[in-house]
Amino acid sequence: MATQFRSGNDTVRRYWFVLPVFIAGLCAGYLFKTCRPADTGGLEEKIQVRQQGYRFISPLLECENSTGLINVLIKSFKKEMSVLISAFYKSGEISDAVVYFRDLNNGPWYGFREQEKFRPASFLKIPIAMAIYKAAEDDPAILKKRVMFSAEVKMPGDRVQTIIPPRKLETGRDYTVEYLVEAMLRYSDNQAIFLLSRAFPNEYLFELYKHLGIEDDVLDKIDGQLSMRAYATFYRILFNASYLSRKYSEKILFFLSESAYKNALAAGVPAGTAVAHKFGEGGALDAQRQLQDCGIVYYPGRPYLLCVMAKGKNLKDLEKFIETISRFVYNNVNLSVKKEKIQVP
Asked: Which of 29, 32, 268, 317 has most Cβ atoms within 10 angstroms of its Cβ?
């Protein structure tokens, strides 16, 4: 019989501490359907052929050699990006930063400290959602299961939300699992996570640990960390529909595109541009804060993945930094697309 989730504080601890390992496992195990040329510093020479007809996903069909035009974008903004980031460091608005960009059609990427480890915080809501929908592929009824919200679970001092969900769950009501997944992704509702722990079949996590040979002591480690480049793999898995069914991959990205949080990443692109993204925050209220935002920007015909993390004393400064990076990247993608159109005979 599968071990059941523990209640109270044990449930909270298990959720926050096991998922970094879950992330590492998925990153290693579910990329077999993606186009994987050798790592050449972000300048891969492959073009991916994808199935059309979906709004948020783009299932991979095959790979072929590129003409080299896909490298122009990375080469053009690499130096300017570093200068921009340095300016924020010098101004004191940020004390640390991580940036990861990837062209989702063709694969070239750019990273600034993308291998640096950080605490993912609310980012972990995406793998939770993926695991639940994986369970639903075996038992669709799980999504309709109802869970009663009797009382709020208090968060530790260094995990208090300052970006308050605009729509919160109400105590004394019951909710379906699928509604809780939606609340978790659209509104970043932490209470939804704890309610889901009561209904989620834990073997979809624990059997994965067993398969990967992960020891139990990893569940007790505080502040599990991972790199932005590793975390970004979740979006690639969803975009490629290479782990979940196309239906559920599309649904998760739709929920993320409906995020109530419109600052940071989403604020840096033109109004009306779809952005399937998830933010996370952390740090004590009277100390250094951390903010990260990661998602897919659906530039017409040229979707790309952008993930940014920043640390500093002021949340508004961190939002400004991420918004600035987002706008810089969008403008450079836009310029690159226009140049490519000019070069087409």
From this structure: 268
Q: Model confidence over 151-173: pLDDT tens digits?
A: 988 877 666 778 888 889 999 99
| Nearest in space to 334 (alpha carbons), one of 66, 73, 55, 52 | 73
pLDDT, tens digit, 9 for 90 and up, residues 297-310? 999 989 999 999 99
- DSSP for 240-300 reads HT-SS-HHHHHHHHHHHHT-S--STTGGGS-TT--EEEEEEEES-TTS-EEEEEEEEE--T
Cα dist. 311→37, 49, 92 in Å?
A: 33, 38, 10
Burial class (CB within 10 angstroms; exposed 0-12, middle 13-18, buried 19+) of 95: middle
Q: Where are the domains of the chain?
A: 8-343
In the 8-state DSSP scheme, what is residue 36? -
CA count, 13 A, side-chain hemisphere, 76: 15
CA dihedral 57, 327, 185, 36 (to 10 degrees): 40
Most confidently predicted of 103-107, 160-164, 325-329: 325-329
DSSP character at residue 219: G
Contacts of 108 (CB under 8 A, 6+ apart): 42, 43, 44, 70, 71, 73, 74, 102
What's domain 8-343's superfamily in CATH? DD-peptidase/beta-lactamase superfamily (3.40.710.10)
